[in-house]
Amino acid sequence: MTIQSNIAQSGTVWRPSNARRVVLDGFSPVPRGGSGRSPSVLIWPEKDPSDVLDYEIDIGPAILGNEGDSITVVNVVTTPNGVNDIVATRVAVDGGIAVLWIAGGIAGKIYVVQVTISTDSGRTLRRSILLPVQTLAGGSVPASILTTSTGAIVTDQNGNPILLGS
User: Fold this and answer.
1) How far is CA 154 from the centre of its chain?
2) pTM attached to this predicted model
3) 150 in Cβ contact with 165 (< 8 Å)
4) Are residues 147 and 91 part of one domain?
5) Among 46, 45, 27, which residue's Cα sits nearest to residue 37?
6) In the chain, how long is the greatest CA-to-CA distance?
7) In the chain, N or C: fewer CB atoms in 10 Å?
C-alpha cells in the first residue's frame, strides 16, 4: 500500500512515543583520508497484528544546521502489500520527525516500509525500515516453534521463526 501526505502544519497536540523511533544515520563528517561506515539497517521493534501504533523516523541528522528546513511531504510504501498485510493508516509530522500509524500485518512476516521524505528546501530522503510482525497478545507459542530456555523465539537470518522438524 502507498500513502502520501502533504504536510500543511507541524503543530500537534499528541506526543509520539520515542520507543518506536529510528534516527537516520550516516550523516557524520568523515575526516579526509578516512573511510565512513555504512549506515546500519533501520528496524522498528516488532508489532502484533492487532496493534495500531505510531512509528517514527527522525531526519534531524540530515537537516542539522538548517533549522529553517522542515518536512513537507511524506510518502510511504509497504511491502509485501497483500490482504491482511501492514498498512500505514495516517502520517503526521512533529518537527523533524515523520510519524506513521501502522496497522495490521501477518505474524511471522518482516515488512519493509519505504519512507520518502521531502523538505521545504528541496531535500529528498528515502529510507527502508524493517518492521517484524509477531503474535504478542496472549496465547502460547506453538510447540513446533524452536524457543530458547527463556521462551524467546529462535529465528533464521530473515527473522522467520525456526520450526522443529524443518
Assistant:
1) 22
2) 0.69
3) no
4) no
5) 27
6) 57
7) C
SS3 62: helix
CATH of the domain at 55: 2.60.40
Work out how many domains the chain is built from and give that number. 2
Q: Are 59 and 98 in contact (CB under 8 A)?
A: yes
What the block records as the C-alpha cell of 31 is 575526516
Residues 128 and 78: beta-carbon distance below 8 Å: no
Q: Which three cell numbers stand for residue 8?
A: 500543511
Residue 129: other Cβ atoms inside 10 A: 19
Residues 62 and 142 in one domain: no
Tell me the C-alpha distance between 119 and 6, whole Å: 11
Mean pLDDT per segment of 10 residues, for the chain of length 166 residues? 51 65 68 61 91 92 85 95 94 89 94 94 92 82 76 76 76
pLDDT of residue 8: 46
**3-class SS at 22?**
strand
Looking at the structure, do residues 24 and 106 belong to the same domain, yes or no? yes
For residues 107 and 44, membership in a common domain is answered with yes
Cell readout for 56 is: 517514527
Same domain? For 67 and 90 the reply is: yes
Task: Please tell me the predicted confidence (pLDDT) of residue 38.
Answer: 60
